[in-house]
């Protein structure tokens, strides 16, 4: 497991490095999309043929992944090698972040030289997540947490984030379907981000909230991994908004405040969750479970 996570660290680090250092010199070309949008596209670099706004957001995301997410997953490798329960939970959360980022990149970015790497990364991340989760002993996971586990707090965070995504994306989808695509599709043919958020993140968040409130084993496991992904994703979105700000000269204040707040709240909940893991169980070895 540790070796597999280390391989993903190297792959994700390579992809993020290319996005940061090989994104081109900022040369653009302007074109009209089939839906009538006049869009500035990147004319060189690994993200060529993508709208300049998307490249700007992606550059911010790549910076966060390279300098924060990848080191965080790398730091978890030794604890995975020690068969730490806490370390494996954290690793699954970071792998969920990596999986989601590169699934979105594979589906949303224009075809480019990094496309095969994106596929390898999200496929490997999903496989290793399943591998680790299948070995955690989910049925007995609830016994590994004390009464200090913030079940209600996590449920509130999950439901709040689901509501925010619904409010943000349903309105945007309705506007696009009504023909107001300018500034929404950004030269793309469909809304990939919205499809993934509404089809994956919202149902998972609602399910996690219910399972956490019920105190079920899967609720504890999902909460402990999803909170890590929530912190990483919220900070990454803030980085994306800053990247767009540098390109367009305008910061979207409300989304930035919302996701910065979510990052702080998720961090506080995550600290409480991981502290609630009983010391005897936090580093259990395979032999001790038999």
SSE arrangement:
Blueprint: H1 2-21, E1 28-32, E2 38-42, H2 52-81, H3 85-108, H4 115-134, H5 151-177, H6 192-214, H7 217-248, H8 253-275, H9 279-282
Antiparallel strand pairs: 1-2
Helix pairs in contact: 1-2, 1-4, 2-3, 2-7, 3-4, 3-7, 5-6, 5-8, 6-7, 7-8
Description:
The chain is mainly alpha-helical and 290 residues long. The protein has one domain. The protein is built from nine helices and two strands. It has helices at residues 2-21, 52-81, 85-108, 115-134, 151-177, 192-214, 217-248, 253-275, 279-282; strands at 28-32, 38-42. The protein has a two-stranded antiparallel ribbon with strand order 1-2. Helix 1 runs antiparallel to helix 2 (52-81) and helix 1 (2-21) packs antiparallel against helix 4 (115-134). The chain is globular.
Quick structural summary:
The protein has helices at 2-21, 52-81, 85-108, 115-134, 151-177, 192-214, 217-248, 253-275, 279-282; strands spanning 28-32, 38-42. With 290 residues, it is mostly helical.
